[in-house]
Amino acid sequence: MNNPLRNLALLGSSLTSLLMILIGGMLPSAILGLSENFSFHIVDLPSSWQIPALLLSGMVYGPSSGIIAVFAYLTIGLFYLPVFHGGGSIGYIATPDFGYLVGFIPAVWITGRIVQTAKRKTLLALFISAVCGLTIIHSIGIINIIFGSLVSRWQQGVVELLLTYSISTFPIQILLCPAIVLIAKSLRKIQLLE
């Protein structure tokens, strides 16, 4: 593939990744639950599909497209439109959420690289890449919260912030990883990547 075609393919996959992240941020997550009378009902979860969409873009389109999409997403959210979970603008840098957004950058890269370098793109390899990406996002978010709390940047205490941003959401996002893996595997087959 010559350079113009490669660049065009990278642009297309980056735009697709950006759209996945933007749309994922607007979709609340939910699972099917079983009620007392054994009927199914939808249980809302305290998380959106934003992070799953981010991980999915790394697994399907690779680290380069994922990085470009994340930088575009952060630029749009910081300077143009309120696309983040709690809004947007340059003031978002001072919020506890921002560490998690910064974590998107290494997370999408690592997730994509794990899949890209895996000899066999098995469901387990995809699951491991998703969990690694998710762990990176939360690790950087937690570090930001701890440092911000040390300098009294927020009114809430560190425990309350960690409960709100990581302890209550991380297990839910882990539960979504098998769904991400199945979607990624299907998309990779449709696009003849496997």
From TrEMBL:
Keyword line: Cell membrane, Membrane, Transmembrane, Transmembrane helix, Transport
Annotated family: Belongs to the BioY family.
Annotated InterPro entries: BioY
Signal peptide: none
Membrane topology classification: Multi-pass membrane protein
Entry's localization field: Cell membrane
GO cellular component: plasma membrane
GO molecular function, one term: biotin transmembrane transporter activity
UniProt keyword annotation of Zinc present: no
The protein's name: Biotin transporter
Gene3D superfamilies: 1.10.1760.20
Xref: PANTHER family: BIOTIN TRANSPORTER BIOY
Keyword Transmembrane appears in the UniProt entry: yes
Segments traversing the membrane: 12-34, 54-83, 89-111, 123-150, 162-184
